[in-house]
Design goal:
The chain is mainly alpha-helical and 247 residues long. Helices cover 74% and strands 0% of the residues. It has ten helices and no strands.
Amino acid sequence: MEPFFTWLGTVPWWIIFPLMGVAGGAAKAWERGSRRRHERRLETLRMKAQLKTAEIEARALTRQAKQGPAVVDTTASVAPSQLLERLFAEHDEITARWLDYELDVAKLIAFPAMSDGRQPLVAAFLRAKKTADALRPASADAKVSDQQVSEYLDAVGAYAVAFEVAEKDARRLRDSTFTEAERKRLERAQQLLKVAVDESATQAERNVAYKRVRDELEGLILLSDEAVEVLEKKVARELPSSPASEA
């Protein structure tokens, strides 16, 4: 920067104001371009959600056609149970894929962004999950209106797209948002985790490795109580009996 200020001192004062105007115009142009890119991205996500909901509905209706017409209570405007069953299956599948990250500490270390609600795409996924959960009917036989089914269909589609986008971004980022020292801690935690769940290791070795895993992850990745419980069960797994003890 020093050479720049030295050069600036040699520039006539009347040139500085036009330069400031050019810089200001460039900044505004960059801001407009950034806003347009953001709007295009949101539009892409909306289109993907619409395509996903259409795909889910088409599969459900195809399945319904093969199984024969459903008995519908026309007085209550009830949606076909096959459609709701298919939506429930899609909903549960996405939730299971998400829990696979939440409960698997190895995956959390490999793709830490998936557990970070501060990441915009993860935050968007969690909002979509909350919406889909709230709109989910109590059962496939529940008496719901066409509007309720339509809203739930859209919510499941948005939920599916939000997860896929968040997962793709997390796999792209991996540990790139961490410093070099933090990445080394994550790497050590990953190696120690292998010992902590290794059935060939002694219980004492597994316990020590587990404690060190928690120490390495402290302040880097927040493990849910459920993830800790799953990991502790793996660490405390009984060792297979040796031939000598069986004799």
